[in-house]
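step=encode ok
step=design start
structure_in=
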């Protein structure tokens, strides 16, 4: 097999996956699924995709797809992942992988049983500046890491208008939002053993019914510390990055993609580009994730965020909710 055929479910954020059909990545979207018939018909016509359905069960049993891309509302993920694996399909799924520990256990068990690839497309893993920062950290250039922080700052009001399910369900903004910075910190610093979370409902989005702004302190299994700022109920001002990462080492610091070493030495910044159109934001990051998925299925590469890594992010998010409700630190489960 030289090219994978992908059935895409969910045409909101999932629309970014369609960039595969305009690239030389060995994945093609050949079937679509969405509950919005008007949108489904429009996207199918635009991209020349003949197979379109509103029934997910119909999508996953198609013999002419190899991968199911799940970009539907989060609470649907568990049953859809399990159905796809049961049908013998590899799975790409947006964050959060699932929404309960029990669901995470079932998904891990199913991946182990089938031997199929599951990749959680945490798009921050596909950002070249973060990949470069990880390379610098792994090289020892900034010494031993002892602290890190990651921010996700996003005025979600326009997003709520485009995808009202996030208000109606409502979307869990730790599992479906803070998962970005949580995964970043896990990538750089390892397992998180304990969290202490504060949160509130800001009122900036009057229709959103629960907490949307969070500060999370974390302790890693190594004993090192970190912090997550997950501000999704804010008025976003120009010049503030949506996603940012700072890493502190004994020989230097990475802050806003600038690397400063001891003795007042700065490392030059690189210029990054995505070779697959389009280049900007989540679209470019998704192209990196699609190429990685192809490498996993066709060449046996290990998924950057597999079922167990996805489960640990879910477990961390659930511990944050436990801490917020109790007012005390909460332990994080890492064994799956």
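sequence_out=
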């Amino acid at each position: 097999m030289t090219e994978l055929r992908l059935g895409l479910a969910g045409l909101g954020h999932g629309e970014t996956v369609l960039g595969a059909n305009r690239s030389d990545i060995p994945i093609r979207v050949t079937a679509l699924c969405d509950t919005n018939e008007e949108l489904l018909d429009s996207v199918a016509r635009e991209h020349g995709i003949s197979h379109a359905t509103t029934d997910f069960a119909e999508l996953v049993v198609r013999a002419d797809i190899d991968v199911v891309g799940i970009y539907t509302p989060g609470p649907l993920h568990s049953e859809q992942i399990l159905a796809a694996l049961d049908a013998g399909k590899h799975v790409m799924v947006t964050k959060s992988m699932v929404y309960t520990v029990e669901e995470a256990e079932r998904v891990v068990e199913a991946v182990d049983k089938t031997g199929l690839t599951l990749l959680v497309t945490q798009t921050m893993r596909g950002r070249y500046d973060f990949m470069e920062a990880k390379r610098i950290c792994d090289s020892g250039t900034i010494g031993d890491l002892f602290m890190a922080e990651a921010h996700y700052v996003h005025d979600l009001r326009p997003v709520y208008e485009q995808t009202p399910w996030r208000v109606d369900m409502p979307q869990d903004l730790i599992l479906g939002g803070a998962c970005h910075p949580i995964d970043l910190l896990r990538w750089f610093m390892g397992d998180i053993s304990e969290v202490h979370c504060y949160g509130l409902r800001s009122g900036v989005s009057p229709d959103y019914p629960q907490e949307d702004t969070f500060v999370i302190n974390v302790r890693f299994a190594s004993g090192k510390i970190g912090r997550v700022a997950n501000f999704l109920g804010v008025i976003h001002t120009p010049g503030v990055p949506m996603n940012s990462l700072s890493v502190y080492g004994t020989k230097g610091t990475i802050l806003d993609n600038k690397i400063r070493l001891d003795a007042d030495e700065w490392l030059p910044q690189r210029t990054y580009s995505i070779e697959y159109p389009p280049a900007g934001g989540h679209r470019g990051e998704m192209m990196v994730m699609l190429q990685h998925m192809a490498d996993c299925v066709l060449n046996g590469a290990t998924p950057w965020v597999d079922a167990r890594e996805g489960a640990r992010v879910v477990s961390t998010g659930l511990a944050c909710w436990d801490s917020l409700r109790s007012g005390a630190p909460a332990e994080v489960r890492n064994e799956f």
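step=design ok
step=annotate ok -> The longest strand covers residues 145-153.
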